[in-house]
Amino acid sequence: MAVVTMKNLLESGVHFGHQVKRWDPRMKKYIFAERNGIHIIDLQKTIQSIKEAYDAIRKIVAGGKTVLFVGTKKQAQQAIQKEAERCGMFWVNNRWLGGMLTNFTTIKKSILRLKKIEKMEIDGTFENLTKKEIAGLVKEKTKLEKNLGGIKDMKELPGALFVIDTRKEAIAVTEAQRLGIPIVAIVDTNCNPEGITYPIPGNDDAIRSISLFTQIIANAVVEADNETGLKIIEGLGDEEEAVEEVKTDARPVEEDEVEVDIENYNPESAPKAPVVEEPAPAVVADEDKLYEAR
């Protein structure tokens, strides 16, 4: 089954680029033609790039690593959160905080603060506080939830980054490059594809286009998870079979059998079974006789 078809890409408007005057010359190899002052992206190269990115994400997730979905522009926010939640991965859709990757230890402290406030809200600590203190904590929690809600359970750096619009998410791209984290990104005709591990040429402004790309990457994650689950189930099945084989191979210990030649059988020479001597019965003394004798 194909990852995506040409029809899907055309219906989503993936082939529409930016105005000619806003183009980046480094995107020249991905541009098919120019129509009415707008660049048209070569969808053959887009499909090829999608397949490469799809396989890369599958391998990364199968290796036990995570993927961080990043898209803070308004058109991408909803799709990023929805698809990341569907495949059980992390996301950033409000604002990229500087150092979210390169200074992750400090970000962890903010995440712990968010969890602490949530715990206070549940265990009844708020009941012992004033209205002003509660309002301050709720405000702080809302702010932290907005920026860090998607990475609340992320305990280590992700194995890959999926980015919508590398121009807007320039800080995220720079941090990932510095740490050597693979980047899968949608690059429009006004973006720089250099430095992106898996660039996917396409429209990064249309909601339908963004939703399609995000859905494809999420499908790669889900497929990798399913493959891992099947491997675990097969492994358990093999172990059960091995245990059954051990049980069936075990034979009861048999006594040594002696062959007897019927024609030359002599009852006197035959081995006799060992005679077990029974102990003599104990003599019970009659108490009346003993008394009379005295």
Explain how this protein is built.
Helix 2 packs parallel to helix 7 (207-249) and helix 3 runs parallel beside helix 7. The model has no long low-confidence stretch (mean pLDDT 84). The protein has a 5-stranded parallel sheet with strand order 5-4-6-7-8, with helices on both faces. Strands 1-3-2 form a 3-stranded antiparallel sheet, with no helix packed on it. A hairpin with a 2-residue loop joins strand 2 and strand 3. The protein is built from 8 helices and 8 strands. Helices cover 47% and strands 12% of the residues. It has 294 residues and is an alpha/beta fold.
Show the helix and strand layout.
Elements: H1 6-11, E1 16-19, E2 31-35, E3 38-41, H2 43-62, E4 67-70, H3 74-87, E5 90-92, H4 104-123, H5 131-148, E6 160-164, H6 170-179, E7 183-187, E8 198-201, H7 207-249, H8 287-293
Parallel strand pairs: 4-5, 4-6, 6-7, 7-8
Antiparallel strand pairs: 1-3, 2-3
Helix pairs in contact: 2-7, 3-7, 4-5
